[in-house]
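Bumping with the actual sequence this time:
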Amino acid sequence: MSQKKLMLGNEAIARGLYEAGVKVSSAYPGTPSTEISENLVRYKDSVYCEWAPNEKVAAEVAFGASVAGVRSFACMKMVGYNVAADPLYSMAYTGVNGGMVVAVADDPGLYSSQNEQDTRAVSRAAQIPVLEPSDSQEAKEFTKLAYEISETYDKPVVLRTTTRLAHSQGLVELCDQEEIPDRPYEKDPAKWVMLPANAVKRHAVVEEQMERLAEDACSLPINRMELRDTKIGFITSGIPYTYVREAMPEASVLKLGLVHPLPRKLIEEFAAKVDRLIIFEELMPVIEEQVRSYGIACEGKELFTKIGEYSANLLRERVLGETVQAAADPSVPNRPPILCPGCPHRSTFHVLKKLKLHTAGDIGCYTLGAVPPLSVIETTLCMGSSISSLHGMGKAKGEDYLRDWVCVIGDSTFMHTGVNSLVNMAYNQSTGTVIILDNRITGMTGHQDHPGTGKTLMGDVVPAVDYEKLCRGLGIEHVYTVNAFDVEALTARVKEEVKADHLSVIISKAPCALIPEARSTKKCEALPEACRHCGACLIPGCPALTKNADGSVTIDDTMCNGCGLCRQLCRFDAIREVNAR
């Protein structure tokens, strides 16, 4: 009797990787993809798993393992797919040896991302096949199928997921791990070395591979017609398929599991069977534009939107004309995200706000420094961009301009792409103040290790990157490490460096308050009888502090992490340190 288990989509993908006999996995954490690697490492007796410094490196590690003849895996979110694009575009030409799959998680609705990118569009340009599951069971099975397609058609394959699939649960049937023999490596520079003379020949191979896969896709079981009432037919895939089945269970559906390349003949056959054809796909009209190019009349984005997630209610409104009651009461106040109690970034941002400095920001939980009450982050573009942006400002306006600016970057983001940007500043003789927010972890995606933490995904203890030595090795003389919670010392150091005519790096260091081993044994307690109602302790916006009706302050001891920032800001000794209960 087979065993079934309730699994998140990400957990199911990890199970599929295990069952498929994958031996090497490399990834960079990025919501909503992170839990794939965190679940896969549970099978570390069978699979080597690692956090890479960035997605480009992860893709190249997986490529190397594939060339060596084993099944390999790389994992990232959709903006990370851009970082990995350089090797992946060329991998479409080289092909693979052992099967190689890249999981890319899109984020319709922008729950944790800076743009709504569609992985299908990028993969079409890269000539890489894309599979898209609709539930947890398919997530596992499509992962295994992706390896078969990869090895059959000599291509890396993308497994596209979305936030809704990644974080939804469904029953998954567990199977045994496959015994996949390693493939022998054969020296073949014409295949593996992408010199122009070789690449031009491989391009012809790529076109033939994709044409053959498109032809074969018409008979793939994951592309299937579900004929019911033929008055309306939907072409859909992924999570939107589940919305069609919920809202319009009697409608005919062409469910696509392989979304690139498309099975043209199957689409033409389905279109001929229905009176009205609707393309139901989130984000870009990737399928719709191709169907229209076949000369097939259809409806799509004129009914729906290119923005955000879809839902069953959207179908009911736009196709059935039903009025759907709003899910949320608009009178309920919004609850915006905020830095955690005891977060060291809050202390650093308080200093920058007090000094009235403009701040170029980066990608991480510290991006929340852009919102009230801190409101110090003024630019955020992409990983590593804070340092490069600061450099550009100085080159555009002169070094005096940067006396009012600093940039901040997290330790994990610095390892990801910030090092290159800092090399550029040093090499091109910039001035300016770079602040590395070293909270000893990748905080935003849930406490993943990185090269600066001294621990790997497999749990091995390794030498941690020394940021001071690294920066000095780039030729930067002015490098300082300051306790992020020492407000006086940090203020003095920042104030001095922004006035200087040199490039400096300040490492504002204190561990994330939510790391178990870093949690303080102390709490802060307010003394109402000593409070002068000045509100100084409230300025940084710690959620553990509440202003009472009489102007005094209460500190919630269940939320307080004992960082002591509020106590430092109180000039009247109205906050004291006590032992945690």
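The tokens above came from a reply further down the thread. The first strand starts at residue 3 and ends at 8.
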